[in-house]
Amino acid sequence: MATPDKVAAVAEMTDKFRNSNATVVTAYTGLSVAQLKELRRSLGDNAQYRVVKNTLTKIAAKEAGVNTLDEFLTGSTAVAFVTGDPVVAAKGLRDFAKENPALVIKGGVLEGKALSADEIKKLADLESREVLLAKLAGGMKASTAKAAATFQAPLTKLVRTADALREKVEQGGAGTPAPAEAAE
User: Fold this and answer.
1) What is the mean pLDDT of residues 25-54?
2) Is residue 21 exposed (0-12), middle (13-18) or buried (19+ Cβ within 10 Å)?
3) Cβ distance 46 to 115 under 8 Å?
């Protein structure tokens, strides 16, 4: 029989699974309470890091429609529920794991797709969403400027040619057609 505390914990985790665009499952054995606090701070507002019970997490994940986490829910488990940019959270976890080898990234889910630990590390190698958007905007701006220059080039060439012909005519007719009477 389920206790009210467990029912509430499952309901809370189910909401977190539904409201998160990514979830990262880790093993935390060997980390001190101070290190866990540091990890939570390093993730900031982008993600919530919680130590969880595997059985309750499996139930909550299934209720939320996430069926790809069962293989990662063994041993001591903590889950990062990411509501912001998943790249930033993956970088935070990867960097913390480099400094604290006791943190092991097991895997996760990104927008319904299962991710292995290696895929999460590859995700961490990406630039943040803001940087990628800035690069895209810069590329689009450069493409627009290049297109404008390309469309403007024939007009510019036409104007220069017309100016050159006008100057020749004004300088005394070099290149002007001879009158028809003089040619006979």
Assistant:
1) 88
2) middle
3) no
